[in-house]
Amino acid sequence: MTAHRILSWSPSAIVFDCDGTLMDTERHWQEARNVTFRVFGLKPPAGFADRSKGVHYTECGALMAQETGKPDLADDLADTLLSSFTALVDQDPVTMPGAAALVRLAARSRPLAVASNCPRTTVESCLDRAGLLGCFDHVVVAGEDIRPKPEPDVYSAAARLCGVPPEEALAVEDSLTGMESARRAGLRVIGIGERPPGPEAEQADLWVASLADSELQTWAHSRLGA
Fold it and tell me: pTM for the complete prediction?
């Protein structure tokens, strides 16, 4: 077990994923994928939701096109996916359990950043509506010079902007794609959700059911309290 790598340690900075970690938006992505398939008259391939979790929306559009045998529709699928997701989030921005409390506590004493595969406007809008945007020193998203997760770029850039070496920063993630990105960048990782069987569990040092986990909250007040 590697939980002691988190629970016996005080990070110098914390980098959070957004979708499914801070904001309860993974359900919106799932519904947006369903809407997009319906708009184009396509049937979702079996297991697509699991394969697409945490994937950049342009790559998700390409995956949709590939797996449904419609390669020419990749860009159109991606555009529809993003617009559908944005509309759903605007209607229902909700934070994940424990997220707001942890962010506000950590922001008192640590530089914080967000590392996301979503467009900047979407991330900032979500966090702003949740009252959390002001807690973050930096928002890093995939773009021309920053490759999306699972590449390490967003986490490497976030740690650098926070002014700390990657090994002194903590990543908080809910997807294996994001955990791989953080791990490759050299950060320690808290994984949110059910601990998977097999080697995939090693992507995170500590697994918690949610950010409201009592052990995590005790650690945060002890190690992050101002």
Answer: 0.83
